[in-house]
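To fix ideas, we give here one paired sequence and structure record:
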Amino acid sequence: MPTYRLLLVEEIVESDCAEFRVEAASLRDAANILVDAHADAGRKDSNWVSLPDGQSAHIEPNDLDRTRVYCVLLDDDGNEVEEIDLDGPAPSPQPSSGATSGKRKRGPRTGR
């Protein structure tokens, strides 16, 4: 029986939201303005998202939105090869062979 090297991943998604009215040339531009403002807040280690027109909102994800547990096949070097689809048809068995896939190796996770 083959032996597989797997990574067990538990992903927890928390959420929070705030409404803004954003004047922009397009919907995509408006969304980018909000995403950039969120990134600016993160760089300041703040949960306050502020727009140039003075609108601001406190965003602190603490509502558990969903959790997901899944497995990822690793090669012999610990590189991720593919996520295992537990709902689809079963692939043909291919134990770890030493070949690398070029995918990144997962580093230690840190809380944010």
Q: What stands out?
A: Helices lie at 27-43. The longest helix spans residues 27-43.
